[in-house]
Design brief:
The complex is a heterodimer of chains A (319) and B (328). Helices cover 75% and strands 1% of the residues of chain A. With 319 residues, chain A is mostly helical. In chain A, strands 1-2 form a two-stranded antiparallel sheet. In chain A, a hairpin with a 2-residue loop joins β1 and β2. In chain A, α2 packs parallel to α13, α3 runs antiparallel to α11 and α7 crosses α11. Helices cover 74% and strands 1% of the residues of chain B. Chain B contains 15 helices and 2 strands. The termini of chain B are close together. The chains are: A mainly alpha (319), B mainly alpha (328). Chains A and B meet through α6, α12 and α14 of A and α6, α12 and α14 of B.
Chain lengths: 319, 328
């Protein structure tokens, strides 16, 4: 107990998340022991990939402060996947599919960045607007129908498994998180992001290019959402216009659970990674227990509210 | 001292923004009337007005929230929950008085929940209400048990379709809600406090304004208005479907922003919101009639939000605006 009290910051977050995760796993073990096998692990990691990529972008945008938030991530995932698959139908060489998907995401994200930076719109209202534009366009262009035509080699990657670990998770999610962690911990860019999140005014005064960093982070969040769209294409074998549904809520919950403070400047990506695994384990567990999927969005929403309130309470408790 | 100047405005005070909205409404009507033969009929005009009732009431509450620097993205589903409660009362053959009261009551209760999370818990309004949106959506599914609440008795319908002295009841209710909100906003300390909080919460707190109380009350008022909207919804459609209210919050935010209420707080226009609601519904109805699939509606609304805010941001930087600000 004493040791637990000495923990703080990222270590405390990680310890709490591991505790919660153990509770979920033990609960699942008691209720339905038959789910414990390598297949379940693979499924969880498979489902985690999309949320991990989107949650990473969301986390970085929030970390950089300035009331930063990206509510459009779900729409970006859907729309970039739809743009990629439709441009394939219009004669794009299949080799370029991944490039187009990620690039489309980056451009959609950059548009958010321009709205926030150049026009000085509040991030939540700008990205709320683009969320409806992006997700609405994805639905309206396709009429709501899934678009087939993903090349076979992409499916090979999307559905491939190495030692129980899905290939997209191994080759995309893990490297992205490792890179982001490295950049945050040991480069000037990482320091800049923390500095502008903690106090934007003084960050500007010491000469950090705040606007450029912010624009790049919004574009990066878009690019990661585009990558998530690519994963969904490669895994499901079709472009679904509603694949990004509820991702804005889930990615926010992952970022907040992962210890990133909503006002920015504090937190890390390791916590987000752990939080994504926790969330997806929970969702998979509910699915295995035959609980209707409509409960998922409510539980994720309740978790978001709970973690925000707990954060406030712990601040009051400490002071 | 923008807030103080607004204090002197009349019940219906038209400035540039409201006039241009009115012109935009008329222009849209003319364009759609030319484009579609089905547009300029009295039946369609009634449809547009009828479809605006809920949004007008919810928009009034959203105006207060945005002017205060808050927001509530769960408000559409709150209406859904209130509608379910009304439906249950009606289905149980309850008396009409109870059916009339239960909507605002549930709205006020859920407003308290939102306020408890956002105001007392000091959580950013957008994140807190997004979380609650998830919870409420599950609640709607669970309460409806996977099927529509349909074929409700016409108790409320007969009550609310009546007219007093030739004026339909919905128009009366909306007019009195408008008047009540306008009075609170422009003739009581509450209104001044609200706008001051919108300008700067920190400064408002330091000057002794009861920030927590004002913010809490505003969420409850928005909830009550949403509950009244739910009553009209049930009275009109006599059923509650799964997707009830899913785009209402977006529409309300768009209407309020169109109306010239600043999301940075400190400036708001109730008349602007009313005209914003009408313009939005005229556009949605007109686009549908000229053959644009309804799937495009959220796209149009989103573009309107970003377009209006972007236009304001750019025009604020023009030399004329700078000159006017310097003079003020």
């Amino acid at each position: 107990m004493k040791k637990l009290r000495n923990l703080h910051g990222p270590a405390l977050t990680l310890a709490l998340l591991c505790g919660l995760w153990l509770i979920v796993v033990v609960g699942l073990a008691v209720l339905k022991p038959s789910v414990f096998n390598l297949g379940t692990v693979t499924t969880i990691l498979q489902f985690s990939t999309v949320l991990a990529l989107v949650g990473l972008g969301q986390g970085l945008v929030i970390l950089a402060g300035g009331a930063g938030i990206d509510l459009s991530v779900g729409g970006t995932v859907s729309l970039s996947a739809i743009i990629a698959i439709l441009s394939l139908k219009m004669g794009l060489p299949p080799v370029l599919l991944p490039v187009v998907c990620i690039l489309a995401g980056a451009l959609l994200g950059a548009l958010n960045g321009v709205l926030v930076n150049r026009l000085a719109l509040l991030p939540f209202i700008a990205t709320l607007g683009t969320f409806f534009v992006y997700s609405g366009t994805a639905l309206a262009v396709t009429g709501g129908a899934a678009q087939s035509g993903v090349p076979a080699w992409l499916l090979l990657w999307g559905r491939g498994v190495v030692m129980g670990i899905p290939l997209p998770f191994l080759t995309l999610a893990i490297p992205c998180f490792a890179l982001a962690g490295l950049v945050l911990m040991s480069t000037a860019w990482g320091r800049w992001i923390y500095a502008m999140g903690y106090n934007e005014r003084s960050a500007r005064l010491v000469g950090i290019p705040v606007d450029r960093v912010r624009l790049i982070l919004y574009a990066l969040s878009g690019a990661l959402a585009g990558a998530a769209g690519l994963v969904s294409l490669a895994w499901l074998g079709s472009g679904r216009p509603n694949i990004g549904q509820n991702l804005e809520l889930e990615s926010l919950t992952a970022a907040m659970l992962g210890g990133i403070v909503i006002t920015g400047g504090r937190g890390g990506v390791g916590g987000v990674f752990a939080a994504v695994l926790l969330l997806v384990t929970l969702k998979t567990g509910l699915l295995q227990l035959n609980i209707n999927t409509v409960w998922q969005v409510g539980i994720v929403g309740a978790l978001l509210v709970a973690v925000l309130l707990a954060d406030r309470l712990s601040q009051r408790w400490r002071s | 001292m923008n807030a103080v100047r607004q204090f002197r405005n009349g019940v219906i005070s038209m400035n540039g923004r409201e006039w241009s909205l009115l012109v935009a409404c008329l222009l849209a009507i003319v364009v759609f009337a030319v484009a579609s033969p089905h547009y300029a009929t009295s039946g369609n005009a009634i449809t547009v007005l009828r479809n605006s009732v809920e949004l007008l009431l919810i928009g009034l509450g959203m105006t207060l929230l945005l002017a205060m620097g808050g927001i509530d993205v769960s408000i559409g589903i709150v209406m859904g929950l209130a509608a379910i409660a009304i439906g249950r009362v009606l289905g149980a053959d309850g008396n009409p008085l109870l059916a009339l009261v239960v909507g605002p009551l549930v709205g006020a209760l859920l407003g308290c929940v939102t306020a408890a999370v956002v105001v007392l818990g000091r959580v950013p309004a957008i994140v807190g209400t997004l979380g609650l949106l998830g919870v409420y959506r599950t609640a709607v599914f669970v309460l409806l048990g996977g099927q529509w609440l349909s074929g409700l008795p016409a108790t409320l319908t007969n009550l609310l379709a009546a007219s007093v002295l030739g004026i339909p009841v919905p128009a009366l209710v909306i007019a009195s809600a408008y008047l009540a909100v306008w009075l609170a906003l422009r003739r009581t300390p509450y209104g001044l406090h609200l706008l001051a909080i919108g300008n700067s919460e920190e400064k408002a707190r330091l000057s002794g304004i009861p920030v927590v109380k004002v913010r809490f009350m505003t969420f409850v008022v928005s909830g009550v208005l949403t509950g009244i909207a739910a009553t009209f919804y049930v009275a009109t459609y006599r059923n509650v479907e799964m997707s009830i209210g899913s785009t209402l919050a977006l529409d309300a935010i768009a209407a309020v922003i169109l109306g010239g209420t600043s999301i940075l707080g400190g400036r708001c226009s109730l008349l602007g919101t009313v005209l914003g609601v009408l313009l939005l519904r005229i556009l949605q109805n007109g686009l549908l009639l000229i053959g644009v699939p309804s799937l495009w509606q959220p796209v149009v609304t989103g573009v309107l939000i970003i377009g209006v805010l972007g236009f304001e941001a750019i025009s604020n930087r023009l030399p004329l605006a700078r000159f006017q600000r310097a003079r003020a």
